[in-house]
Amino acid sequence: MRTIKSRSANQILKLLFFVLIAGAVVLNDAGCKSSKAAKAKAAEEARAKAQADEEARRKADRDATAAKVAADAKAAAAKKEPYDRIENYFQQVANAGDVTNANQVIATALQSFLSPDIPVLIIIYRSGSTVDYDQPTTIGKYLAYIKDQKKNPNSIDHLEMDTNGKITEVILLKK
Q1: What kind and span of H or E run contains 130?
Q2: Quick check: 120 and 137 in contact, CB under 8 A?
Q3: What residues does 154 pair with on adjacent strands?
Q4: Which residues of the chain have pLDDT under 70?
Q5: Distances (CA, A) of 168 to 56, 64, 66, 152
Q6: How far apart are CA 157 and CA 155, in angstroms?
Q7: Torsions phi, psi of 157, nearest 5?
Q8: Domain boundaries, the chain
Q9: pLDDT tens digits, residue range 55-74?
Q10: How far apart are CA 49 and CA 44, in angstroms?
Q11: How far apart are CA 21 and CA 23, in angstroms?
Q12: Cα(123)–Cα(86) distance, rounded to whole angstroms?
């Protein structure tokens, strides 16, 4: 009987050992699966973060580009504003209904200039770097000419300004 009991104990020990080994293998396999899942989840999170970072960088680039375009447009508008304003004064003087109105517009327009004696040059010919001008005049005389003729036969080619924004020279181009 002892042999039977010892065999049974031996079998029980073997069975117990087998169960422990099998449990260890199952737990290890579950741990590997868990580890693989964790690694896959971490990789997915890293990809999502990289994608989010790339989208944020692209958005920042788009915003910077939009800001630059807006700033350039604002600068261009600011540079163009004096040209439009002076051109508008010229048209108002030419289209004034009477001398009184024309003189009021001239007085307002002259406030944009350093003095009524600043030079006005009218380009009559340009080819490359060669430029020919009509006889020079002053802004005061040019505004009086527009008033008398009731038309503005020239367009603004260039305005020179001082640091205070006052116009110091006008270059016109025959239309």
Answers
A1: strand 130-133
A2: yes
A3: 174
A4: 1-7, 9, 15-17, 19-20, 22-34
A5: 48, 36, 34, 20
A6: 6
A7: -95, -40
A8: 82-174
A9: 988 998 898 888 888 888 88
A10: 9
A11: 5
A12: 17
